[in-house]
Amino acid sequence: ANERQGNDPATTPTTNVSVSRSTHFFDPATGTWTDGPLLGTARQAHSAVLLANGKLLVAGGTGPQTISGSNNLASAEIYDPATNAWTPAGNMKIPRVNFAMVALPGGKVLAVGGSSNNLFQSSTELWDPATNTWAYTNNGTSDTSMSEQKGFPAPFLLSNGMVAVAGGSSPNTSTPTAAVELFDPATQNWTVLATPLSQARSGHFPVALPNGKFALLAGRVLNSFGFLAAVGAPGGAAGAVEIYDTLANGGQGTTVTTANAFFKTEGRVNAAAVMLPGGKVLLAGGSVNSTTGASTSEIYDPANDTLTIGPALTTGQGTSVLGVGLGNGDVMLIGGDKADTITQICRP
Questions:
Q1: pTM of the model
Q2: Which of 130, 175, 219, 288 has the most CB atoms in a 10 Å sphere around its CB?
Q3: What is the CA radius of gyration of the chain?
Q4: Nearest to 266 by CA among 291, 308, 294
Q5: How far is Cα 201 from Cα 230, in angstroms, rounded to an integer?
Q6: pLDDT tens for residues 194-246?
Q7: For 14-46, how does the pLDDT look when each residue is reduced to its tens digit (9 = 90+)?
Q8: What span, in angstroms and rounded, lies between the C-alpha atoms of 227 and 328?
């Protein structure tokens, strides 16, 4: 949510938008929230990734907007649970908003796409914890990047150590992309697979499967009228789940048949998605359409390629709701554009 603490001097008389530096801790044992240490820089629409050493890297986003325009950030900072404090990390090569990061084996972090000062980006860069610096991905001869500019990308690690980016928002915001691209951390090269997704899709959640496969859950696609709509809604555009095999077709990829054309409840975009103990995935909340937040949840079982209805939510929290798995198997749902300050516990 965008609430600000009274001791958060995040804005000045030259700014016209409040952006928070605040952080909060939730204790499942007591069911209570407490204030955490303030970020060094107020930011929103940023990206965060958990590092192998238990620290948290936060980068990019937008700061308080000035009267003259937006304030995209290249800065990054690291939270250390041992000291309960934030310290500066190196700046990214460019400011990035609505991008994504993924932690790689070996400790480096890959930052992918997003937008920079209102321009969608194809560039990618790596953060090196040994030097606390960022550098554009480079194959030893030249900088490398994705084939397309992508906003709101969803990179993820495949079982073979490659990073996949499938679908996402294109500069033409009325049309998602269907491209499937792979990043090889060893060579730092990007490769576009010859076989695209069966549907151009954005606002989805990717799940890595064994043997180089992955599944895309929910999101938005073009419906039969040529408009973007939540995929998999009963009676709407089919495609609740798409399964893709990156190793098939001589490494050029292929889609895999799935029985999950429609969800049991409703389609959803930018839902909370949490990996559950045992490998199942909970999809909760998200947006049904521009005015309605989903108040349902579903559970996807990758092992059996099945969808089942999950617990009902007390409130539809809308797009960008955050889901966090708790140690007891419960899932906390936080915020969302239809319920900025709402939190609720979902018990799958």
A1: 0.91
A2: 219
A3: 20
A4: 294
A5: 10
A6: 999 999 999 999 999 999 999 999 999 988 888 899 999 999 999 999 999 99
A7: 444 568 899 999 888 888 889 999 999 999 999
A8: 41
What whole-number distance in Å separates Cα of residue 270 and Cα of residue 230?
Answer: 10
- Pick from 156, 145, 99: nearest CA to 122: 145
Please count the CA atoms within 13 angstroms of the CA of 163 that sit on its side-chain side: 29
Q: Is the pLDDT of residue 57 over 70?
A: yes
As a three-state string, the secondary structure of the chain is CCCCCCCCCCCCCCECCCCCCCCEEEECCCCEEEECCCCCCCCECCEEEECCCCCEEEECCECCCECCECCECCCEEEEECCCCEEEEECCCCCCCECCEEEECCCCCEEEECCEECCEECCEEEEEECCCCEEEECECCCCECECCCCCECCCCEECCCCCEEEECCECCCCCCECCCEEEEECCCCEEEECCCCCCCCCECCEEEECCCCEEEEECCEEECCCCCEEECCCCCCCCCCEEEEECCHHHHCCEEECCCCCCCCCCCCECCEEEECCCCCEEEECEECCCCCECCCEEEEECCCCEEEECCCCCCCCECCCEEEECCCCCEEEECCCCCCCCEEEECC
* Phi, psi angles (nearest 5°) of residue 258: -135, 150
pLDDT class of 122 with cuts at 50, 70, 90: very high
